[in-house]
Amino acid sequence: MKLYTSAAIARWLDLTERRVRQLRDKKIIEEARPGLYNLLDTLHRYIHYLRKDGTDNELDIDYNTERARLVKAKREKEELELEMQRREVLRAEDVEQVMTDMLLRFRSKLRSLPVKLSPTLATETDQTEIFMILKKATDEALEELADFDKTFGKGAEEDGPAGE
């Protein structure tokens, strides 16, 4: 039986010598003696390995794919930070806080309408006048919800630029 070096095996399998050593270390191919391989056995083992889709195990990570994912994630993060600085996007926490404040003020105004209007409406007999008073009061309460941009701008400026 003739034995071959890793350089010869690499040429036969169209691999680098380093890849041959990696396959040896992963027990895909075996050395007959230190640094020497049985060509026929090595070919059979390598073909069997390739038939299994050439996967050593699922934990192997393709460096280029992972690097591309990392670069993409960093780019997306920087784009989002830039959009936040330009005030093109808003942080969810900021929007939630402003909306909560607006709705609480709106709720409070609606709940105060009976107390505020009952003395006035008790003395009114003109239905048109009652309608106008109620309409004016409800419109004032709805104003709380109408100016989201103005309210958010005021709330966000208190937090500093981009919510910092």
From TrEMBL:
Residues 63-95 form a coiled coil. Keywords: Coiled coil. It comes from the Bacteria. This is Phage DNA packaging protein, Nu1 subunit of terminase. It comes from Enterocloster clostridioformis.
